[in-house]
Amino acid sequence: MIYENKDQLKSGCTQIIQPDGGDIRILDEVKLKNELIDNLIYTAVFSPDKATREAASWLIRRSAAAMGIWSASIQPLYQAMGRGEITGFTVPAINLRAMTYDSAQAVFRAAIKNQVGPVIFEIARSEIEYTLQRPVEYTCAVTAAALKTGYSGPIFLQGDHFQINAKKFAADPIKETQAVKNLIWEAIEAGFYNIDIDTSTLVDLSKATVKEQQKLNYTLAAELTTMIRDLEPQGITISVGGEIGEVGGKNSTVEELQAFMEGYLEELRKADQTLVPISKISVQTGTTHGGVPLADGSIAKVKIDFDVLEKLSEVARDRYGLAGAVQHGASTLPDEAFDKFPAVGTAEIHLATGFQNIIYDSAGFPKELKERIYEYLKKEFKAEWKEKDTEEQFIYKTRKKGCGPFKMEMWNLPVPVTRQLGADLEKQLSFLFGKLKVNATYEITRKYIQHVDVSLEFPASLKG
């Protein structure tokens, strides 16, 4: 059910939850989990009234807090990894583009079943646009899913690829930089306490030295880190990530890592000697976001240079105290590749397209809806259809852009369909968690991640 106005919202909450200052009193936990939380998240996403959406969002986040669920920074865990206190696993960072509420429930079910601690829920700057999910909506969908499934503990929400667009930067650097700063501000307000800065798009390989090539990258990364430190809530050190090589480009080198870090730390100290630097570094080792589709729509095999990944992670930890290197574009890799990431000390791995593919390619996904989405893509994104691409290649590359315009249809699929899709996602997640060695890490995570409650402004529409 979607509450269309504040009166319906208040009526729906009666005898289940009750605002109490800046907190929530849970009056009926069973009804909250079984009924009200569904109504609240659908209202937060789809209500036609902005004030009602904002009130539902507040109720979700504060109800979760009352149930022992909170947004957290993974920084203390990554610092422990940098010190060598924790080893042996790679943290999965999962981008949810479609059916976020149902998909996040699958993540939590798999995490609870396998006692998984560190799982990051992330969304990139580009994904925010084409999936029509602003940060606070993403926060609420993930948080509501945690409450629905009975999860208790920290939730790691991450801004993935908060990226400077090179063409827009070249045309107006101040405007493009401010756009990323505005997004960072919005994300932190929404509870994103993990931010991946991506200024690697500004690396200029035509420059004579590696440091000159990386200069704009590390200078702007330091500027954005300084801003994040100014904005982070009291008691929380936001985990910030940097990037030295754009995914899909040439493989990163130790020399590039060193040039970036030395320049970055120098710039950071100019601003403030006490500022906490990045906790991890994203590198390029041979992958491409989403994989490379072949003419028949299948994905080309990718060869990752694990030796490079291992060396970069080692240098990042030993020399700079980082958790290690981060691998992007990994969800479409063959299953046998995943256990190699913890073996070479990879700190974090980003997984996105593979989960989107499970949804689209499931036998349970309605054929009629898929056909409508594909026809929409062929009409609206015709300009992106390259002459050399088959229809299968075009569809594979663009179907992520159907997640936003068809969001309501996907969220309202029949229950048997959502159950099947959820089961398919949960199965793959459990497999990946095992491969990445994060099973039985819940207690380790809780040891390092302390509960910090960040207050939220009480919505005016709930007053009285």
Characterization of this structure:
With 464 residues, the protein is of the alpha/beta class. The protein has 2 domains: 62 residues, no CATH class; 323 residues, Aldolase class I (TIM Barrel), CATH 3.20.20.70. Helix 5 links the parallel strand 4 and strand 5. Helix content is 50%, strand content 11%. The model has no long low-confidence stretch (mean pLDDT 93).
List low-confidence stretches.
Answer: none
CATH superfamily of the largest domain: Aldolase class I
Number of strands: 11
Taking Cα atoms only, what radius of gyration do you get, to the nearest Å? 22 Å
Mass-distribution shape: globular
By CATH, the topology of the largest domain is TIM Barrel
Proportion of beta-strand residues: 5-15%
Biggest sheet: strands side by side, in what order?
Answer: 4-5-6-7-8-9-10-11
Mean pLDDT: 93
Structural class: alpha/beta
Order of helices and strands: HEEHHEHEHEHHEHHEHEHEHEHEHHHHHH
Main beta sheet: 8 strands, parallel, barrel
